[in-house]
Amino acid sequence: RMKPDISGPGCQSGGDGGVTSCSSAGDTSYTTMCGTSMAAPTVTGMLSLLLQDYRAQFPTEPDPRNSTFKILLAHNAVDLGNTGPDNEYGYGSVRIQQTVDFMRTGNFLENQVDQGGTFSVLLLVDPGDPELKVTLAWDDVPGTPNVNPVLVNDLDLKVFDPSSTQYYPWT
Prior knowledge:
Blueprint: E1 19-22, E2 30-33, H1 39-57, H2 66-75, H3 96-105, E3 159-160, E4 166-167
Antiparallel strand pairs: 1-2, 3-4
Helix pairs in contact: 1-3
């Protein structure tokens, strides 16, 4: 279980340079701070707005699972540091506008699979498309402490072209 899953901005490049959030000084006061501790309230606010927009776009659907929010943010994050996910940036820095735009397309799904089961999806990719980007996440029950492997459920994503050639992550 790589952590972090994603990273977020803890400072801003303009204005006062910080992130404004509720203060512990009282129930009506705010404070502006800059640093890694401010990334959590920033991403939390982004997720609140994403959920609000999801409910407006898909009013008859139930709220998404936690793993769906994770996947939406990770899928649209800007990769930083080493290519691919790493233990410093996760899948990259959150970009909420791209995430909202992607969510509004409805090109994501939630499903479940039983132990030892398979779930397949057929995607049609136009020959002129420069890339296919697929991201998988799931909600996993807590593993037993100090036991390896730590995953209770271990899902694999396999991508094949029409001639059965398999493609691997980050290629």
